[in-house]
Amino acid sequence: MNKDQVKGVVKDATGKLQEKVGQVTGNKTEQVKGLGKQIAGTAQKAYGDAKEALKDADKKP
């Protein structure tokens, strides 16, 4: 697992929490910010996954 995968998972989890807090408090701005973080986290994790796949492909004979 590389740093982009880890950071992506953390951003996604943080975004989910932020979205839930926004829902509980009725704060639409926090909900939208949370969704944005989730999207960014998912994208960063996908980037990390792609890097890992390339690295693994280079190791194969």
- The gyration radius over C-alpha positions equals 15 Å
Residue fraction in strands: under 5%
Number of domains: 1
The share of residues in helices is over 70%
Outline, from the CA principal axes?
Answer: rod-shaped
In N-to-C order, the SSE pattern is HH
- Provide mean pLDDT, rounded: 96
Low-confidence blocks of residues = none
Task: Please provide a brief summary of the model.
With 61 residues, this protein is mainly alpha-helical. It is built from two helices and no strands.
Question: Care to describe what's here?
Answer:
The protein has one domain. It is 90% helix and 0% strand. Helix 1 runs antiparallel to helix 2. The protein starts with a helix and ends with a helix. The model has no long low-confidence stretch (mean pLDDT 96).
What key attributes describe this structure?
61 residues; mainly alpha; rod-shaped
Which helices and strands occur, and which strands form pairs?
Layout: H1 3-25, H2 28-59
